[in-house]
Design goal:
Elements: H1 9-29, H2 35-85, H3 91-108
């Protein structure tokens, strides 16, 4: 029984050349696309691009909305902190403000 006889470099190079020539012949034999097929392909690509753009715009809008809500929450929290830091009005100040409102109302009559 004979052992395995490995192909030589020349054999491998020749096999590679034959495979390349066969692939080239297959590519040359492939039919060319007509104008209708090219137009259909362009329409599919345009539709896909439009869908991708719409999806990107929707995602961008969602990010902007999320950022706007976060900014509003931060602003509200800051306003609450500022309001909490303001000193409380004393009874005398509250009474003076109430009396001023009453006087203004009386003067309007």
């Amino acid at each position: 029984m004979n052992g395995y006889n490995a192909p030589s470099f020349q054999d491998r190079a020749a096999a590679s050349m034959r495979a390349k020539q066969k692939a080239l012949a297959a590519m040359k034999a492939a039919p060319l696309l007509d104008a209708d097929a090219l137009a259909e392909r362009a329409a599919r690509h345009a539709k896909r691009d439009a869908l991708a753009e719409a999806k990107a715009a929707k995602a961008r809008q969602a990010r902007e909305d999320k950022q706007r809500l976060a900014d509003e929450k931060r602003a509200a929290a800051k306003a609450d902190r500022v309001k909490a830091e303001q000193p409380k009005k004393t009874e005398a100040e509250l009474k003076a403000a109430r009396d001023a409102r009453y006087a203004a109302r009386k003067n309007r009559k």
